Amino acid sequence: MKRRDILRLGGVGTVLAGRAALAQNQDLLKYLCPPDGIPPDLSRPSPPAAPFVTELFIPPVMQPVAKLDPPPDPRAHQRWGDFTPKKFYEIFEREIVWQYHVQGPYAKGSLSWGFAGSKDAKAVTPGPMYREKYGVPVLVRRHNDLPPVGQSKVTWALPSTTSHLHNGHTASESDGNPQDWIDPGEFWDHHYANYPSGGDPREKLATLWYHDHRLDFTASNVYAGLAGFYHLFDERDTGNENDTSPEAWRLPSGSYDIPMLIHDVLFDQSGEVVFNAFNTAGILGDMVTVNRKIRPFLKVERRKYRIRLYNGGPSRFYQIFLRRGEKGPDDTMTIITGDGNFQPEPLVAKSVYLSPAQRVDIILDFSKFKPGENIYFVNRLEQTNGQGPTGMVVEPGDAFLQFRVVEATAPDPSRVPEFFRPLPEVDMSLVKAYRTFEFDYDGGLWTINGRVFDPNRIDAGIEQGSAEIWTFRNMGNDWSHPIHSHFTEYILLEVNGRKIHRSEIEEGPRTMTKVYGLTAQERRPIGVFMGGPRRDVATLLPGDEMKVYMRWNDFLGKHVMHCHNVVHEDHSMMIRWDIVPPGHGFAGPKKATDVYPPHLELRPQASSFQEDQAGKEE
């Protein structure tokens, strides 16, 4: 009998559910079960804020530096010689006062954390935007300039940080692993190869983001503002709509390519951000922010735009519609990517479904609207608690961003091609293992296969260069889990026992629809885009089961898989898996000390390379 079932029946006293998790983690229960009498987060609403009076914030673009002092240590990074950095950056995490809205108690600003793109730059949230190219490796030196514990005014987050390049095909030591944190005054060097998995151009990605991933504090640190954008381009998606080369797609670019990071935030009556550390089910806010502005507006010209939508979490799911005017009707959107992956073909959808951490790039053509018209993004997915949505699509929904249409200033040279790139192949001859992961809530603990996260336990040893079939299973009837595994993407094979053809996608929960390879007469707008065949976030609604194909190329080392309702991740729905040399794979779990000899990992700030160089100079 599960704990949830006992609670439904009004049971009290000893909870017998989740015996394996309880036996393993008895001491953790007093921290994971909230004290009695804590009111629900939304029982104390934020101060009112007029919608669409604050302009959308668009972060600045990161600028490289000539060199780093001290220089990075090549021995700290895998395959440095293969991917020698051609650009260097420095970014600084700092405490700031951020203005979420121009009126009321918000006008004075709210205590937050953000990123500065140089020592002298002003820190912002979201942080500065990286615009990088495949084939151009970079190194990012991230400085923790936050005030230490006891001095930081953001008292509900921890000024001890990592930074994960979400969706990046990145070596372990640069991935922002939850174990690899730095404290105030320290820095970490992140080596981003900007290289597709296995060198396969079909594995290229477009819309990535970086965010804090500190063990046990991901939710609070991202909620404080530690997130930003990372966009990758290549010879097709060039980032230049005026590129006349034959292979260039000429998608909307520059000021017409706009990232939008969605967070729902709760504030107290003085306009300060509220985070309830005792809420272990999931955090909901009542103020939807886009790029950390409460229900902003954006002026758009009568032409095409590329809008990159990100669900920054921590726990809210969205189903987003495009509404024309205050009361409709709805319009459609052209989908070009899902979770950073270009779809084989663009497709038209009436709505977009985003679980936490999911992304989608859409093309909106405002030329069909008149100057002076207002167009809205509206969320119509009902969610009453942090565990997940109810599944109800409600009217009229919550309009959270306004587009103000103005006349175009110049002709629109952008276009949307009829085909992007094919999906990677599913090569079953490479499959070395089949694994099943069950996501549950046992005795007050969020678990995977009955266990909570232990950073020194390896739950899967995966052979480099191999493929595996993983099954994700949601054991709950009341909660949803967006499951994200680092380092590599997956190809969807089955949903709830139904095999998925490469031409099909999920059109809403549990509905599969053929969308690729159709004739013009067969095409129609789909109701809801929940993600394409290739993704990095598996949205498990209550009772769902998904089977996926994954490959592990190019690097070795430790990584994690977790629920991206990051409150669940922090409490403690995550596993460690390692890429090991060919022939050394194992089922797990194993202690890390049984797999690796004892060693001391060097921190980039005090590397032996620097000491060697100093000795040579003397």
What key attributes describe this structure?
618 residues; mainly beta; Immunoglobulin-like; 4 domains; eight-stranded mixed beta sheet; seven-stranded mixed beta sheet; 7% helix; globular
Largest sheet: 8 strands, mixed
Can you give the helix content as a percent range?
Answer: under 10%
CATH topology of the largest domain: Immunoglobulin-like
Question: How many individual helices?
Answer: 7
CATH architecture of the largest domain: Sandwich
Oligomer: single chain
CATH hierarchy, class of the largest domain: Mainly Beta
* Unreliable residue runs: 1-23, 28-32, 601-618
When the domains are counted, the total is 4
Q: Please tell me what the overall shape is.
A: globular
Overall pLDDT level: 90
* Helix/sheet category: mainly beta
* CATH homologous superfamily assignment of the largest domain: Cupredoxins -  blue copper proteins
Number of strands: 38
Distance between the termini: 70 Å
Beta-strand level of the residues, as a percent range? Answer: 35-45%
Radius of gyration: 23 Å
Report on this model:
There is one protein chain. The protein has seven helices and 38 strands. The protein is mostly beta strands. The protein folds into four domains: 3-33, no CATH class; 74-235, Cupredoxins -  blue copper proteins (Immunoglobulin-like, Sandwich); 255-406, Cupredoxins -  blue copper proteins (Immunoglobulin-like), CATH 2.60.40.420; 428-595, Immunoglobulin-like. Strands 9, 10, 11, 12, 14, 17, 18 and 20 form an eight-stranded mixed β-sheet that branches. Strands 23, 24, 27, 29, 30, 33 and 35 form a seven-stranded mixed β-sheet that branches. Strands 13, 15, 16, 19, 21 and 22 form a six-stranded mixed β-sheet that branches. Strand 23 and strand 24 (445-448) form a beta hairpin.
